[in-house]
User: What shape does this take?
Amino acid sequence: MKSTDPFKELEEQLKVRDRSKEQLRSKMMQSTNETKKSSFKKYGWIAAACMLFLVISPFYSTTMASIVAKVLPITITPQISDGEPNPNLTSDLFKVVEKEGYRVGSVGTTPSPFTIEVSLVLGDSTLKQAKEDLEAKITSYLYENGYDDYELKITEAPEIPTHEGSNDLNKEYDQVREIVKEVFASYGYAEEAEYELAGMKGTGALTIVTIDMPDHIDESKEIIADIEKEIERQDLEVKDVEVNTFNLQHRLQDNRWSMISSDIYDAMAGKSTYKLAGLSYQVKDGHSYVWIKTDLDKPLPQEQIEEIEKAVQEYLALPETQEQIRDDEYTIEFLLKNGKSFVKITD
Assistant: This one.
């Protein structure tokens, strides 16, 4: 994504969405109330009329798919409801592909242009045959769900080489994680210990353990000393322990808004009406900023702007989202191609 002059200073600090959602789900989410369901009544007659036209018309084209997509309502769905992950584009495509008898290596998306890549573990099949079997099924699913502005790539998953000693390294890492959790908990920081505070880099005799130390902990030196003693007692092959201090509340807020911003972006990505080009977010001085970037040269019609605002506000009001927002102050903006804001939502 290219930065624009009005946002150059901020862009250098932004985090482009590339983290694993699944990791955040497991760490950050708690069970919440049932999701409020968006009302589709006012769109019902529009969708019905469009589908009827498709049935009786002797012609069909990608243009018509775009027409249908533009009248579909915006539905922003939280990643988690009642402690369980909600279906989304990637999980649905997993099912579509597996239903056809293929093994999925991965499903992912990238922005600008919005690209959907399905990676397959082919076995005895050929990539050519897989494309013939799957392309129609996948495009049908995408059409039914309003996607009309995307590139689809079906590829063969590369073989992942197994490195000698990788199992031993994973085992050692698990041991280090347990040591770190137990030592933090022994000082009364069991809650902090639930977050990923330990890491490793290097291998063999050059292995270094990295510890993320929350800056509100006064006993940090004692904790590190105990971790080092326990590593030595268990005779783990570790050269050194490095400590990085961070603000836990800032990181938790950052993680929460990674999920919130992704939910909003995902609801409109791959749909020609909105021409989304990318997503950035930042937590600064306790305030959360979200920028949804588009390739639009001018603002959308007022009716569509109001629809976006309504969909975002309804999503923000959901119990699951409120659980994430907490008391955070926030600003959510949709930006034109030149960086100018045309939709702005604040708390």
Q: What stands out?
A: The two ends are 27 Å apart (CA to CA). Residues 147 and 271 are 5 Å apart (CA to CA). Residues 1-70 have pLDDT under 50 and may be disordered.
